[in-house]
Every structure is written in structure tokens, then in C-alpha cells.
Amino acid sequence: MKLSTLPLAVRTTCAYCGVGCGVQATPQADGGIVVGGDATHPANLGKLCVKGSALGETLGLEGRLLHPQLRGEDGLRQASWDEALGRVAAGFSDIIARHGPGSVALYVSGQLLTEDYYVANKLMKGYIGSANIDTNSRLCMSSSVAGHKRAFGADIVPGCYEDFDLADMVVLAGSNAAWCHPVLFQRIARLKERRPEVMVVVIDPRRTATCEIADLHLPIAAGTDVWLFNGLLSHLAREGVMDGAFVAARTTGLAAALAVANVDCADPLEVARVCRIEPSKVRAFYRAFAATPKVVTAYSQGVNQSSAGTDKVNSIINCHLATGRIGKPGMGPFSLTGQPNAMGGREVGGLANMLAAHMELDNPEHAELVQGFWKSPRIAARAGLKAVDLFQAIEAGKVKAVWVIGTNPMVSMPDANQVQRALGKCELVVVSDIMASTDTTAFAHVLLPALGWGEKDGTVTNSERCISRQRAFLPAPGEARADWKILCQVAQRMGFGGFDFRAAHEIFDEHARLSSWRNGTGAGCVKRVFNLEGLTGLGERNYDTLDPVQWPVTQGAALGTRRIECGGRLVPTAPRAPVHAASPDYPLSLNTGRVRDQWHTMTRTGKAPRLAGHVTEPFIDMHPHDALLYGVREGELARVSSAWGAMVARVQHGGGIARGAVFVPIHWNGQTASDARVGALVSPAVDPVSGEPEFKHTPVTVEHFGVAWHGFVLTRRSLALDGIAHWTRIQGSGFARYELAGRSAMAARGAWARALLGVGEDEDWLEYEDRAGGVYRAVHLVGERIEQCVFVSARPDLPSRAWLGGLFDLEAIGRDQRAGLLAGRSPGKAIDAGPTVCACFGVGRNTLCAAIRTGKLSEVAEVTASLKAGGNCGSCVPEIRALLAEAHVAGLMQDG
Ligand SMILES: Nc1nc2c(c(=O)[nH]1)N[C@H]1C(S)=C(S)[C@@H](COP(=O)(O)OP(=O)(O)OC[C@H]3O[C@@H](n4cnc5c(=O)[nH]c(N)nc54)[C@H](O)[C@@H]3O)O[C@H]1N2
Ligand SMILES: Nc1nc2c(c(=O)[nH]1)N[C@H]1C(S)=C(S)[C@@H](COP(=O)(O)OP(=O)(O)OC[C@H]3O[C@@H](n4cnc5c(=O)[nH]c(N)nc54)[C@H](O)[C@@H]3O)O[C@H]1N2
Ligand code: SF4
Ligand SMILES: [Mo]
């Protein structure tokens, strides 16, 4: 392409987290895309975190699903759209005709665009006539939704990001924002630099990167948040810091909530005992909260993903309602949404117990309103199955057809082996995805190729109710189609009117009109806060150029609404322990969550080499004393098991875990590891109100996973790994990195290695063997380039992969480098950079430590000046700060 014909930069929204950053995507002459922050977007003002910065590396077509596929006798085969759509429509219609509308289901995603989501919900609730549409938001935000509805009567987030700038105290409860909402976290960190007196409190059983800016870290025991916040309510009442006028005018339920709080939580000593933290920390938190009117309490999955998740949410909101600290500048409860369109999904009623446009399923007046607007033949009369119940109903044969769109339940659901059994039995499994091979697509009878980020058009809504456009800047690959289009085409084939949309803006318009239809206080009206009246009738042009805007958008608030003034109901929240208690067989508590540089099941972030170096393998993080107790060792493999399942990963320390707990990341799956799907272990216990699973606590045990040898392969090819006991895979720059381990001793290592790598007798193959030491190393060269290498040892003492990995970027291996090949390191200076800390500039942990030591550096700015690390997106700054602190302590010890 000539430069002059290149399309201009396109403004769009990041594909990942609920911060909802604006992105500028600029196509390059070489076909690549340069991605930068959009300085005009209110969510990020030009900043991006490392995942956002690496979006350009995830757009290649390797592994993409490009054509519809149908399963026949001999597996999947390519099919035409006509045939595939026909099969889905006929399959659903036939099952509905035989077993009724409740026998089919949609399972969708907070990563769909609002337009996709709207159509899916309309199809299920208005035309099929069942509410069996649930979404991965059930696993994510449903406790917040339920908590908001109990408190405010509607799913409202009163505050906005600006409140973080204006606050004098920020409480982060169950949130590792440094890694999961990095751009918002950096906003808080900047605030703290500007005004060091601002108090930051982190409530998390782990000492996470987020704690690097905390004045106070409360490492409470898993599931004890309600005790802590009930105790706070009780303290606020005792100290007389309630806002009597606000409580009287704008709230109900204080007396009942307080009475319940006072039963178990009036005594901070008792709260400290249950939460297993020092009483002085509880008191410090209570005193600071009482003394600081401008306080924002932001919460995420440590709060939501609990069998007491809804009560946790309400116990937090109670404290804000009682003090009138809500909906005003610099204060309020704030639910951090996870997925890019978690909020948009809620607007269209994507959950099985909601109707579109913030209306309720079980309210006949609401149902009549929605059906009247849609002019649909029917409307779901009662709530559908929530995610965990849905997959159980599939296994029980009650639901016979399921269409999974934009989510990977084989990995992300609790008790994931149950999901495997369910999908294996289901009569008709349809999966729409952008990738061909996922743990879930493996079960599809019909596989439908969807357009991905950069290819599709629509809107998303972020944590602060801000609606932004996602815009296409790439052509549709293969035969992929937009999710809304696929849904409409199936609906039409099922004989339903109401789906003749020609473009995304027409769907958005209908969605906006529904939100404002009969929205008021007059006869026949239902008053809802969610209202997009000011965004109706945009037309294609205005929709295309739509600037970010926060709902409600009405005639009175044409530019949107920053804060929603609100009162509400205080809900009594009696504290209770997690459903499954530790037992002699399963004495440890499994906590699961995210790492900085991967997104969920890695289908996209797993493609970006830049994101691979930070955490290269799944791990089991645990306290060193527990490791001793359970006979496992750092750097070696261990098996962690629960009553539901098991997995294998490498033991590590240093994640700030308390005794009695272990932490495992959620990202690895059947495509990236032999046996590291943590969902298989997680208990299917759910919150009774929201149905959200207890992802943060499952009783488990840990044992040594004995192996006879350890190894790794770096290769430009893909390996067949049959018969290897343990493997994990991650994408490097120009190569894939496999970590391997075997359980039986290896006889003929050379023959084994050649077979594994597919290398013939007459190829350029350098090898080294030390039989006695159990060491084998080989390098395969093609021409001047390294093609692959394999290193095996009886002990886990293998050379660093960093230097070898770097050789894959070279067109020709030099003579010096050749000499180092079988040693796995440069023959001269043997510095191993260590695991990546700064992904933007590729700076490793060892490099940083050496620079800090020799340069006697003490500030992040000095580190950035000397190594650039931390100078771009800033996602690694909390880790650099931790290294500086470690070096400081080490220095003191030396001096002392
Ligand atoms: N890098 C990255 N960022 C992401 C995502 C990703 O996959 N990768 N996913 C996005 C999505 S969908 C979501 S939902 C968000 C999630 O964002 P977060 O909720 O911040 O992330 P998690 O790691 O799931 O869990 C947060 C913390 O809860 C703590 N926790 C566990 N149990 C308890 C408890 O009982 N009480 C309290 N107070 N804390 C507890 C855990 O130790 C953990 O540190 O991240 C979004 N951002
Ligand atoms: N143990 C444990 N499990 C958890 C959690 C936890 O903390 N612990 N967290 C839970 C939470 S909060 C969440 S949000 C879930 C996330 O879990 P999932 O939603 O299952 O994870 P993703 O990898 O984001 O799956 C998205 C899928 O959609 C595909 N995709 C991407 N773009 C598109 C598109 O435009 N159209 C279509 N049709 N497909 C697309 C991707 O390739 C991928 O297969 O995990 C939940 N599971
Ligand atoms: S914080 Fe990072 S992942 Fe989240 S929206 Fe912004 S750039 Fe994307
Ligand atoms: Mo999520």
C-alpha cells in the first residue's frame, strides 16, 4: 500500500478491561497497526496500559476462525454460511417445537458490543419467549448488579472516575487495580503523588502490586469483608458520623442494618479476630473512614466472586448511605467493572433475571412495556437459568441446545469438568468465536466465525457509565461476520420479524428509543434512571462520530451525566462464612485471579510476545512455610486438588500470600498447558441472591508432582505433545516456548528429541549429552538461522530461556553465538535479564536489580532515566517500586 492511500488513524476503545480507554489505531505501510492512547478520551486522556499498548500484536490471523464449520461423522468441516445458519435455526426451532422454549439457551459475554447483546436478548426474551440467556457477567458483575438493585432499586453506579481525583481517601476492596485496571490505578497513584496526604487502603488477603501505593493494607481472611464493613457501620454510628439529615430524607433501613451489624461486629477486636488481622489495623481503617468525608470505596472480584458477594456489596454501600457520602464529588461506592462492556450488557438486560433497558422480568408492567415496544409475539414471563444452573440443566438434559457467544466456559466456569460433561452430552452446541481452537470450540457442532476487535463496529459502556464507540479499522477476515448480524440472520431464519437491521447504528437507535420509551412518571410510564433519550435518532453519521458520553443522556442532560444523585435502602447483611469450609483433606483455601499481562483464557493476549515475558507459566503461589509443610519446593511442580478437580503447576513464593492460602492464575487452559485449567478445581457454590460463583475460595490440598526430567523447547514450529506428562506453551517473538516435564526416565534422548521436534537424520543438529547427569541439549539450525532447540535435565536447573529466545530474532547466528548455543548462554558476558518486569522496553528483573544496586538508585524516576523501564505505560511501576524497597531493605541489612 502506498503511504498516501493509507487510512487515517481511527479512534476506538480498548478491547479489554472496564476502564474503557480510548485508543488510536493507525494502519502502517507494512500492514501492521500502531496503537496508542487517545488523548481526547475522558477515561484515559491518552494513557494505555501494557495490554492496551500491545493490541497491535494480537491482530494477526494465525489461529483465527475464518469460515463456518459443521461437525459431521469425521469431525468439523467447512460449510457455507447458508448451511450453517440453516442448521442453527432449524436445530433451535426443532428443539423448541419438541420441548418448549425453556429447552434452549444462549450463553453470551460482557465482551460483546451493546448492539450484539441487544439483539441476543431480544431474540431470546421477546421471540423465543424464554429468559434462558445468561452471560459470563454472572461470573463477574452479578453481585454488584444485585447489590445495586437492592440498595438503589436499579443497577446504578452513582459515581465517576473524577471522584478518584477529588477524594481524600480511596479504599480498594478485593481489587488488584494495579494489574487489572492499570490506567485507573495510575490515576490514583498520580493523585497520591500530588497529594501524599490522600489515604489509600487496600483490602485483599494477598499483598498485591496494588499495595505498593497503600498506606494501609488489610490482609483479611478470604470471605470476611462483611464483618469488616458491618464493623465500620457500627463504628460510624457509635462515633456519630452518620449524616442524619441525608439518612432521614434519602434512605430507609438504617435501624435494621445497624441492628444486624451490631450483633457480631460491634467490637473491632472481634472483627479483627474473624478477619485475622491486627486490631490496630481495623481501628486505623475505621478512624480514617470516619474522619474523611471524601472517600471512594472501589470494589471488584474479591467482593463480587463470593457466596456472600451481594451482601459484601451492600455492606459497603450501607456505610456510604449512612454517611451521605454518595453521588457527590469525591465520594461514593464504586463498582469496578471487568470486561469492556460489562455495563452495556446490563443496559440491554443480558442476564437471565433482567429485561432490557433496566426493566424487570417479573414485573408485568415492565414486561408489557418491553413487549409493546418490540411488538414481539411473546415475552419471557420468568427468570431464566443462571450460568451455573444452566450448565447443570444441560447436563441433566433439560436444556438441549446452547449457543455460546464470545466466552470460553470450558475454562472460565467453576467446576469446569461439569461444563465438559454438559457440553459433551448436549444435543446441539453452537459456538461463535474469533478463534478456531479453544477448549469450548472443541465441543461445537456448529462453529461460527465472528468479527473481532478492530473489525467490528458498535458501542461499549465502561465502569463510569461512559458509552464509547468501538470502530472498525480492518477488513473482515475470511468470511467472519459481526455477532449481531449472525444473530439476526438466525432469528430471521427462525421466522421472526424485528431483526431486519442493516447496520449497528440502527440497533443502537432502537436500544436508545426503548430506554426512553414511556420513561417518566405519567400514566402508562415506568420511570427508569437509565435513559438514552438524547442519543435517539443519531443516524449513521452522528453514530459514527459519537463522542464518549455518560448515561443518562436526556433533554435535560444532553451532554450526559457525570454523577447520579441518589439515596437508597440500607440492607441488613448478616455475616456468614464461605459455603465450603476447609477440611482435613482439603485444608488450604484456593484463591484465583489475574496476572498483569494476560487476559482471561489468553486467546488474544496469548498472541503477543511482548505480553509473554512477565509471567511465562501457570503457578501455584503459596507461603514458604506451607510449601515446607506440604513437601513441595519453589521452582518444582505440584498438584493442587479439590473435591471437584485437580491441576499441575510450578510452585512459587513472593505473591504476598498468607499461611493457609494458595493463589493460582485463571489464564492457562487446554490450549496453553497440559493440565492447568484452574476452573476444574473451583467449587460451584454460588451467592444465593446473585448466583455469582465463589471463585476466590475453594478448599484444596497441594502435593509434590514428581517428575524424572525437566526440559524446554523453543521452536518456530508447533509440537505434537502426546505422551508428555506436563507441558505449557507461551508465544515468544518468532518462536513458541514449551516447558516440559516427564514422569518416566528417558532412554534414548537423542532419538526422542529428534522425533519430538520432527528433525531428520541429515539436518543441521548440534547436540550435547551428559548421561550421568541426565542432561541432554540439542539445537536445530536451518541455514544460518536457529529453527528450534531442546534442553533436558534430570533437575530443574535449566539455562535461562531469554538469551536463546533472542536468537530467534536473528537472520543469521554469529560465530560467537554458535559457541554458546549448547550452553544456552552467551559465551562472553553471561547476564540473564530474568523475567520481564517492563514489557514495553523488555527490561527484566535481574537487569533492574543490578542497576538499582550498582547505581544506588532509590526512586522510580531514576530507574526510568537509566533503563527506560516504567517510562511508557507505567504498568510495571508498582513492581519497580517493590524492587526498590527490597533493595533498600537488603542495603540496610548489609549496613547493619
Ligand atoms: N490483566 C488483566 N486485567 C483484567 C482482566 C484480566 O484477565 N487480566 N480481566 C478483567 C475482568 S473481566 C475483571 S472481572 C477484572 C477483575 O479485577 P480484580 O477483581 O482486581 O482481579 P482479581 O485478580 O480477580 O481479584 C482481585 C483480588 O481479590 C482478592 N481477594 C480474594 N478473596 C478476597 C476476599 O475474600 N476479600 C477481598 N477483599 N479480596 C479478596 C484477590 O487476592 C485478588 O488480588 O479485571 C479486568 N482486568
Ligand atoms: N477461577 C476463576 N474463574 C473465573 C474468574 C476468576 O476470577 N477465577 N473470573 C470470571 C470472570 S470475572 C470473567 S469476566 C470470566 C471471563 O471468562 P471468558 O469470557 O470465558 O474468557 P475470555 O478468554 O475472555 O473468552 C472470550 C472468548 O470470546 C472470543 N472472542 C473475542 N472477541 C470476540 C468477538 O468479538 N466475538 C465473539 N463471538 N467471540 C470473541 C475469544 O476468542 C474467547 O474465546 O472468567 C470468569 N472465571
Ligand atoms: S486499562 Fe489497559 S486494558 Fe484497561 S481499557 Fe485501559 S488500556 Fe485497555
Ligand atoms: Mo470479569
Report on the structure:
There is one protein chain. The protein has 896 residues and is an alpha/beta fold. The protein has six domains: 3-58, Phosphorylase Kinase, domain 1, CATH 3.30.200.210; 69-138 and 343-500, 3-Layer(aba) Sandwich (Rossmann fold); 142-335, 3-Layer(aba) Sandwich (Dimethylsulfoxide Reductase, domain 2), CATH 3.40.228; 588-704, Barwin-like endoglucanases; 709-823, no CATH class; 836-895, BFD-like [2Fe-2S]-binding domain (Arc Repressor Mutant, subunit A). It contains 29 helices and 34 strands. Strands 5-4-16-15-14-6-7 form a seven-stranded mixed beta sheet, with helices on both faces. The protein has a six-stranded mixed beta barrel with strand order 21-25-22-24-23-26. It has a six-stranded antiparallel beta sheet with strand order 28-29-27-32-31-30, with helices on both faces. β33 (836-838) and β34 (843-844) form a beta hairpin. α3 (114-128) runs parallel beside α20, α8 (225-238) crosses α12 and α17 (387-395) crosses α19 (416-425). The protein binds ligand MGD (2 copies), iron/sulfur cluster and molybdenum atom. One ligand MGD binds next to α18, β15 and β21. Keywords: 4Fe-4S, Iron, Iron-sulfur, Metal-binding, Molybdenum, Nitrate assimilation, Oxidoreductase. This is Molybdopterin-dependent oxidoreductase.
Descriptive keywords:
896 residues, alpha/beta, Phosphorylase Kinase, domain 1, Dimethylsulfoxide Reductase, domain 2, 6 domains, 7-stranded mixed β-sheet, 6-stranded mixed barrel, binds iron/sulfur cluster, binds molybdenum atom, molybdenum, metal-binding, iron-sulfur, oxidoreductase, MoPterin_dinucl-bd_dom
